[in-house]
């Protein structure tokens, strides 16, 4: 498929197609959560590597996770400090999360709000999307829409002309922090250097 306009990409995503667009880290390969299996197939990705649920606002993501009031407070404080931005929080998943997002362990989910005007614009209109970097599994993330269009011809990629004025992503993946029940464990050091003080623990 050729590169498409922002409007066509949003329509395609909402109808269940695979799409790709820039973010503040690396370009995303995305689909509505119920169609997450398309991402695993396109990337030839192992089922034990869960996807990230990305949304325009933290409020859109809290429905997909579950915790105590105390935990929500800790999570919210970290989100307030680092979102929008390159931080993925891995939290206990609620029943609302489609199992295809994390087939092997549907009890957890990674969530993120990107600091990207284009990504925010798309996610505002599609709702939360299942996302990951645009590349075949085990290979480096692709950095441009043209590269993605070549490697994934079946994916709707955002036209380069629609990306004018958008700050390019840093090419560095997000930092991934997992909630253990009492504190945070860094699973991947990425874009953000996390300051995990005693305030962010229980």
Attribute tags:
single chain, 202 residues, nine-stranded mixed sheet, 5 helices, 23% helix
pLDDT averaged residue by residue: 91
Instruction: Please give the radius of gyration in angstroms.
Output: 16 Å
CATH third-level topology: DHBP synthase
The helix-and-strand class reads alpha/beta
Can you describe this structure?
The protein has 202 residues and is α/β, with parallel strands linked by helices. It has one domain (6-200): DHBP synthase (Alpha-Beta Complex). The chain has helices at residues 6-14, 37-43, 69-82, 117-126, 145-151; strands at 19-21, 28-31, 52-54, 87-92, 108-112, 129-133, 156-157, 175-179, 184-188. Helix 1 (6-14) packs across helix 4 (117-126). It starts with 5 loop residues before the first helix and ends in a 14-residue tail after the last strand.
Structure described in brief:
By secondary structure, this protein is an alpha/beta fold. Helices cover 23% and strands 19% of the residues.
List the helices and strands and how they pair.
Blueprint: H1 6-14, E1 19-21, E2 28-31, H2 37-43, E3 52-54, H3 69-82, E4 87-92, E5 108-112, H4 117-126, E6 129-133, H5 145-151, E7 156-157, E8 175-179, E9 184-188
Parallel strand pairs: 1-7, 3-5, 4-8
Antiparallel strand pairs: 1-2, 2-6, 3-6, 4-5, 8-9
């Amino acid at each position: 498929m050729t590169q498409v306009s922002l409007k066509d990409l949003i329509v395609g995503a909402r109808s269940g197609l695979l799409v790709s667009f820039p973010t503040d880290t690396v370009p995303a390969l995305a689909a509505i959560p119920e169609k997450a299996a398309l991402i695993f197939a396109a990337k030839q990705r192992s089922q034990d590597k869960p996807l990230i649920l990305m949304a325009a606002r933290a409020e859109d993501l809290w429905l997909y996770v579950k915790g105590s009031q105390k935990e929500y407070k800790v999570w919210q404080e970290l989100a307030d400090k680092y979102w929008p931005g390159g931080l993925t929080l891995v939290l206990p998943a609620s029943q609302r999360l489609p199992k295809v997002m994390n087939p092997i362990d549907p009890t957890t989910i990674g969530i993120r709000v990107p600091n990207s005007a284009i990504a925010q614009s798309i996610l505002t209109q599609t709702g939360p999307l299942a996302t990951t970097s645009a590349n075949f599994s085990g290979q480096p993330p692709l950095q441009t829409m043209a590269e993605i269009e070549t490697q994934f011809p079946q994916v709707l990629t955002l036209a380069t002309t629609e990306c004018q004025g958008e700050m390019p992503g840093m090419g560095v993946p997000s930092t991934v922090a997992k909630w253990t029940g009492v504190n945070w464990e860094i699973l991947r050091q990425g874009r953000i250097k996390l300051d995990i003080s005693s305030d962010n623990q229980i």
